[in-house]
Amino acid sequence: MKKLNSLLIALxxxxxxxxxxxxxxxxxxxxxxxxxxxxxxxxxTWSGATGGAEDAQVTDANANASSNSIYFESTSANGGxxxxxxxxxxxxxxxxxxxxxxxYVNQSAGAYFNFQAESVIGTTWALxxxxxxxxxxxxxxxxxxxxxxxxxxxWFTMKMEINLTTNxxxxxxxxxxMGSFANGETQIASIDIxxxxxxxxxxxxxxxTHTPYVMPQINGAMLMINPIEGLVSQERYASVEVKNxxxxxxxSFDVVLNYGSTELxxxxxxxxLNSFDGMxxxxxxxxxxxxGSSALxxxxxxxxxxxxxxxxSDDSKTIxxxxxxxxxxxxxxxxxxxxxxxxxxxxxxxxxxxxARDFEGFYQGIAIHNGDPMELAVxxxxxxxxxxPSALVDRGTEIDPGDIKVDFMERxxxxxxxxxxxxxxxxxxxxxxxLTVDFNLxxxxxxxIACVLTEDNVSGVSSGYSQSNTYSGGDAGDLVxxxxxxxxxxxxxxxxxxxxxxxxxxxxxxxxxxYAGFPNSIESGSTYTFNFKFAIDENWKTEDMHIVGMxxxxxxxxxxxxxxSIDDAIAAGLVSGTNVLGTTNLSQFDDVLSIxxxxxxxxxxxxxxxxxxxxxxxxxxxxxxxxxASRNYGNLVGSQILPLNVSEFPAxxxxxxxLVNGSLSTKQFVKQ
Length: 672
Fold this sequence. Notes:
By secondary structure, the chain is mainly beta. It has five domains: 6-211, Sandwich (Jelly Rolls); 220-324, Immunoglobulin-like (Sandwich); 327-415 and 459-499, Glutaredoxin; 417-445 and 513-580; 587-671, Immunoglobulin-like, CATH 2.60.40. The chain has six helices and 45 strands. Strands 1, 3, 4, 6, 11, 12, 13 and 15 form an eight-stranded antiparallel beta sheet that branches. A seven-stranded antiparallel beta sheet has the order 2-5-14-7-8-9-10, with no helix packed on it. Strands 17-25-24-20-21 form a five-stranded mixed beta sheet, with no helix packed on it.
C-alpha cells in the first residue's frame, strides 16, 4: 500500500483556482530499501511501472543533514534503467515556480534531470540539466541557456526561481545566483530524473512550490528575444516574443530594440491580444553585428497608444549577442551524409539550409546522398559515417547535423594556410575547372586538393525522390525549415512532387582523399593551379550549381575551401595548371577515377564511372615495369568498384593501368 503523508496533501489542492502548490520530500518517512514509486502517491516512473529497475530506492549511504536520500547510477550506453518522475499533477504555465534540491555528484561522474512541459510524459522537454565533472549546463534542446559550476563529491543546493508568466528562469547554487535566461518553453508539468551513462549521484531534500499570478489591468510583457549570433558585420533581424499579461485587450504597441548605438522601433497595430495571448514580432530592419559580446535590449511600450503599464518589471528583456571575426579568406566546408529513405534526415536538410542562409560566403555545405537517385557512389562510399544523418565540418569529428553551427563557429576562426580561387570554362559538354591555391603560410607534409560540384533545386518524379519523415505528427518534436514549414505538419513520406533538394553532390574529382599535387615542403607565397575536367550531365541545371574547392592538409582536415557559381567561375576565367585528370582519361570515364585506400597494406579499390558500355582491362605494374597481375573484366558500364588484393606484393610504389576500349589511364598507389 502506498504511503500518504502530509506532504502530499498540498498536491490535492493544486487544482483549486489561485491555490498555492507546495511539495517537499526529504525521504525520511521511508524505510531504507523502499522504492519511492511504490511508497508514494506522487513519485512514479517514465513507464509508470514502479517497484523495479526503473524505480529509485531509498538509501542511507549518503544524505545531506539527514539519514536518507535516493541514489542514481548508470553504466549503460543508453542510460537508465532508473527513470523516476515527480508529477506535479497540473501543467503550470503562469505564476512563480520554485524548484530546489540537494545533489551530491560523485567525483568524475555526472547527473541529469529534465522538466517536462506537458502532462503526457515525453511530449515536450521544457529544459534539460546536465552535470558533468563540475560543470552544469541548462539546455533547451541543443541550445545552452546557462552554464554554471558545482563542487564534485560535495553536497550542494540547486534552486531555480522560474517566473513562468514573464519567462524568467534564474538559477542559484548554494544561494548564489548563477544568472537567468528566457526559455523556449514556458510550461512545467513534472520533473524526470534519469541517469545517463557515467552518472553517479544522490538526491535529497527536493521541493517545489507554485504561486499563482495575479493579473493587473494593463500589462504588456516582453517574454523573450530569440538568440542572435553570427560573424562581425553580418546583418541579423531580431525576433521577439510578447504577451498580454493584463486584463485589457491590447490592440497596438511598440517594441524598441537597443544594440550598441543602434535603436530600432517596430510598431504593431491592428491586433487583438486578449489576456495571456502572445505573438512574435519580427523586425523589418537589421542590426549590424559588432565584434565581441554586446547587450541587446528589447522593450515593449506605447500599449494601445497610452503611456500606461501597470507592471513595468516585465517590459524588457536583455540577451548577450556575440559576434566573432572570421579569419581572412576562410571558408568552412560541411559534408553531410543523407538519404531520402532516412526519416531523421530532414533534420540535416534544415540544418544545411539554415547554415547556407545565415553564413553565405563563409560556409559551403555538400549533401552526400546514400541509397537514393542522387547518390554519388564514389563520394558516399568514402564518407564513412556511422549513421544518418551525420556531418563532418572541415573533415573533423563526425557530428549530428544540428551541431554544424557549433563546429563552424570554431573553424571560421582558424587562419587558413592558403586561399583558393575558382576559374572555369565550358567546352561542349565538358566543364573545365581551375583551382588556384595561394599559400600565405608555409606548410609541410602530404597536402591535397579536391574539387566537388554541387547542385541546388534538385527534384525528380520517381519514388526515390520522396523523403521519409520521422517528424510527421510531432512526436519527434517540431522541425522548422528556412521557409517556415514545420516537418511535424508534413506526412510520413513527403511525395517527390513536393520535394526540392539543395547542396546535392553531383561530381567529385579525383577522390575523397584528394590529389597529392603539392611538394612536401611548401613555402609561403607559393602558388599552385590544378585543372579538373567534368562531363556535364544533361540532367544537371548548371545555373543552380556550385564549384567547391577543398584544400586538404597533412592532418586530413580541410584547411580551407572555396565556392562559386559556375557562371562566376567562368567570368573569372580558366587558369592553366596541372591536370588532375587529363583529357584522355575523360574520353571514356567521367570525372571519377580513384584508387583507395592509398597507401594500403592488403586491399585497394579502384573506383571509376564508365560513361558508355566498354570492355575494361587492368594491369598492376611495379617500378621496374614488370606486370604482377592482370585481368579482363569484360563489358562494363556505369559506376564500378574493383577490389585488388595486393597483400602479397612487396612494399613499394605500383602503377595500375586501366584500358577501356583502347583508351589508357593510369593511377599509382603505395603498398606498405
